[in-house]
Design the sequence.
């Protein structure tokens, strides 16, 4: 995104947070929020990678919506599976730490990927090292890099790739 | 509308509490720290989100703030779980004897050799 657009995006996001937190649209509340948001946006516009690294294309917004739906679906699935494991008397585990590789290059994309993996069924990001992600898996299906990547990383990657690259 | 929201809020609260309970059970039953973090991270995220949604149904005026809280939890909960797991692995935490494979430890040995 260009400088001006990212400055405005940071400003708008901060103001939105302010309004949500206050739960009011009174003039004085809005004015104080706008001044504070402007100062923070000017000072920190480069640090807020959530906004500055976002692609901002229509496809990126669409991918964001798809990503959120997919994330919530995976979160519910992951909890149901966890419930199944915890409630079964035998405790069917086959844990291990597998290695996967990501195509994402941006910091924000990798952060969101690691976060999402932690919330998906049976997987937990343990270590990030450049393009390599080490993931703890409650029920290891394959310790092969490509197979593990396909089953853990690929689902989120296709959305995050459009959003952040 | 009022009459519909209250029961829905109740159902969501109970569902959230159930997932939190299962998460707690997971903490007790899982064999090592990594599996425990797995149980904790997922159950607390969904459990808290459902509870927040339930509260939003019962107190619609708070919905905006609750949405923000949910967003922050969705961002920070997996992050803290990841940092805990990383610290545990770096600190050499004991792994369950069930552990099938540890590529991270293998790679770290490879680096030193």
Sequence:
């Amino acid at each position: 995104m260009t400088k001006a657009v990212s400055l405005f995006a940071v400003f708008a996001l901060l103001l939105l947070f302010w309004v949500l937190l206050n739960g009011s649209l009174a003039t004085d509340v809005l004015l104080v929020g706008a001044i504070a948001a402007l100062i923070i946006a000017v000072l920190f516009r480069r640090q807020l990678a959530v906004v500055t690294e976002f692609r901002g294309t229509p496809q990126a917004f669409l991918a964001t919506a798809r990503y959120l739906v997919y994330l919530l679906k995976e979160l519910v699935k992951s909890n149901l599976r966890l419930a199944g494991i915890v409630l079964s008397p035998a405790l069917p585990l086959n844990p291990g730490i597998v290695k996967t590789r990501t195509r994402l290059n941006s910091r924000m994309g990798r952060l969101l990927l690691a976060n999402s993996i932690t919330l998906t069924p049976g997987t937990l990001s343990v270590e990030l090292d450049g393009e390599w992600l080490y993931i703890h898996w409650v029920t290891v299906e394959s310790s092969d890099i490509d197979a593990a990547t396909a089953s853990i990383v690929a689902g989120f990657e296709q959305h995050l790739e459009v959003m952040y690259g | 509308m009022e009459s519909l929201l209250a029961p829905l809020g109740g159902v969501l609260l109970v569902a959230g509490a159930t997932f939190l309970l299962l998460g707690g059970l997971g903490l007790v039953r899982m064999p090592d720290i990594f599996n425990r973090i797995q149980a904790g991270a997922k159950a607390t995220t969904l459990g808290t989100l459902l509870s927040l949604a339930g509260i939003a149904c019962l107190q619609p005026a708070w919905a905006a703030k609750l949405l923000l809280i949910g967003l922050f939890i969705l961002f920070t909960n997996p992050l803290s779980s990841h940092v805990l797991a990383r610290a545990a692995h770096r600190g050499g935490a004991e792994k369950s004897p069930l552990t099938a494979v540890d590529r991270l430890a293998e790679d770290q040995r490879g680096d030193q050799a």
